[in-house]
Q: What sequence folds into this?
């Protein structure tokens, strides 16, 4: 039998300090968008769960 864990993990947005809740287990390197400030956050580590602002990707599609 599989244990049914419904633990919702959450982390704090480094930009607005809003709470980011994960409905499922986050993955390292995953990018999520803060619902509070729309900042793109990258999951740095999952244990503990740490979020950091994702580096801004400048769209540079050739010339
Ligand atoms: Zn935020």
A:
């Amino acid at each position: 039998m599989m244990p049914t864990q419904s633990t919702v993990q959450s982390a704090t947005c480094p930009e607005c300090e809003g709470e980011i809740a994960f409905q499922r287990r986050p993955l390292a390197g995953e990018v999520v968008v803060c619902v509070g400030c729309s900042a793109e956050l990258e999951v740095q580590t999952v244990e503990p769960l740490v979020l950091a602002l994702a580096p801004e990707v400048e769209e540079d599609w050739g010339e």
Notes: The mean pLDDT is 88. Residues 13, 15-16, 18, 34, 36-37, 39 surround zinc ion (CB under 6 Å). The chain has one domain: 9-53.
